[in-house]
Amino acid sequence: MPSTTGLPTRRGFLAMTAAAASVAGRPLFAQTATGWGGAVDMARGFDQFHALVISHRGETVLAERVRGPALDRAVNVKSVSKTIVAAVLGAALDRGVAPGVDARLGDVAPSLIPSGADARVRDITLGDLCTMQAGLERTSGSNYGSWVSSRNWVANALSRPMVAAPGSRMLYSTGSVHVLGAALSVASGESLLAMTRDWIGRPLGIEVPAWTRDPQGYYLGGNEMALTPDAMIRFAEMYRRDGAGVLSNGWVRASLSRRTSSPFSGLDYGYGWFLGRSQGAQIALARGYGGQIIGFAPELELSFAITSDPTRPATSGGYFGDLMRLIDREIIPAARMA
Q1: If we measure between CA atoms, which residue out of 281, 101, 272, 287 comes closest to residue 200?
Q2: In the listed set 163, 188, 213, which residue is the last one of a domain according to the structure?
Q3: Would you give the end-to-end CA distance of the chain in angstroms?
Q4: What is this structure's pTM?
Q5: Distance CA 45, CA 250 (A)
Q6: How far apart are CA 64 and CA 44, in angstroms?
Q7: Is 59 exposed, middle or buried (0-12, 13-18, 19+ CB in 10 A)?
Q8: Ranges for the Beta-lactamase-related domain (predicted)?
Q9: Which domain covers residue 35, as residue numbers?
Q10: How many structural domains does the chain have?
């Protein structure tokens, strides 16, 4: 079926990767595409690394699996899911499900707020949740296990103590994005899975498998979604192409503007995207545990997807730092030279 967004079709991607894999046991692009082979060679040195796909000027120029699942398999993208939920928020706002990012939780989904929550919880905005600036104690890191073991994930996240004023600073917390997904479900009457499939997956021509749900049936916002590398590239290309008719131009521009910054990596953060520069080029990254990355550089017409072992950490001072050097030293320079 032809793509309505101008993105490459899934069938074309799979045919391309099958043909690439048939050449001397190594992908064709790693051998013949000027400049791209250096990225593959560097990536092979990372034992957590699984696959790399690069799109340049709207064409997939490299699709390399080093280890791990085949390129046509959906893989757990971990916290890249947060960026997908941010896209669902944009689509919801485009459809009038909520009046804007400044809409308060107490107005959009008051039924989610537990009776014992801090009074300020009502004033947390959808934008605060999306940028993880709710001000509530984090549910990620050492708190993640107890949070997902609780009987009510939304109530547990919203009952935590306020440790910062809402909207004041980033406190990386999957619970905040989970509450956002639940709030959008309440406001729209649709599950997060249905919204993701209908508003993002269908127009991009990608499949979104069902994933984890909490005890109340809300799909986990912010973790555990699965996508193929092809779907990851399509998602990146949607943003790179200013929404590609799937999201409004205004939402894309707002998403790529700084709202806060990460206390861990130092990168700026918009609505779902880490923002920075590489070799002078603006880049936007969706980042997931273990080294899952969707990224793009608008001025270079470049998009890329990286998958890695989802069971091992990838810190800014460790493997994620390695991937940033891969982007900075190989991928961005190759795009400039191509």
Answers
A1: 272
A2: 188
A3: 30
A4: 0.91
A5: 40
A6: 10
A7: exposed
A8: 51-313
A9: 10-73+228-337
A10: 2
Judge whether 306 lies within some domain. Answer: yes
The answer to whether 295 and 286 are in contact (CB under 8 A) is yes
Are 67 and 121 within one domain? Answer: no
CA distance 194 to 208: 9
What's the mean per-residue pLDDT of the chain? Answer: 91
238 and 333 part of one domain: yes
- Asked if residue 289 is part of any domain, the answer here is yes
Q: Are residues 235 and 293 both part of a single domain?
A: yes
Could you tell me which residues are beta bridge partners of residue 247?
A: 244
Q: CB 263: neighbour CB atoms within 10 A?
A: 10
Same domain, 58 and 111: no
227 close to 235: Cβ distance less than 8 angstroms: yes
Task: Render pLDDT for 123-181 as a digit per residue (tens, 0 to 9).
Answer: 999 999 999 999 999 999 999 999 999 999 999 999 999 999 999 999 999 999 999 99
Flag whether 219 is in a domain: no
| Residues 108 and 51 occupy one common structural domain | no
Q: Last residue of some domain: 156, 188, 220?
A: 188
Inside any domain, residue 177: yes
What's the pLDDT score for residue 5?
53
